[in-house]
Please model this.
Amino acid sequence: MLRKAYVERCMVTGGWISLDPADMGLIEAVYKKTLREGEERLMLAVLESAVEDFQKYVVGRNLRGKKLFQQAEEWFLEKDSEELFSFRNICETLQLHPDYIRQGLMVWKEAKLKTLSVEGYRQGRTKLHGTRIRHHPVRLSKMA
Model:
């Protein structure tokens, strides 16, 4: 609980001033703002971690990576959760649009998978740039 007597360093005069203990509203507002900022930073860290797992493990090769991606994707796509740290609640607290973020992540995922499938196709092909094809002189003539 907050103490009744508060002392604050005054930046303007460089001296010490005492705040009126009766002005608890001011102190509580500052305390709640600091607490709120801490909660928002934590929520932002949770969101950043989920995006990182989603992007890093979209093509996870091991079981752990695949599981982290699946958990992140399910967390983003879940719409009915009432948990404090659900994607929807975090977006509401941080004033972000959850559907817009979901759509962006799904578009990114499809583009990444498409790019990787094209790259995989190219790696599986034999390279032809080093081989030289000789052209034999062939004459085409009109038949009479």
Notes: The first helix runs from residue 24 to 56. The radius of gyration is 30 Å. Residues 38-121 form one domain. The chain has four helices and two strands.
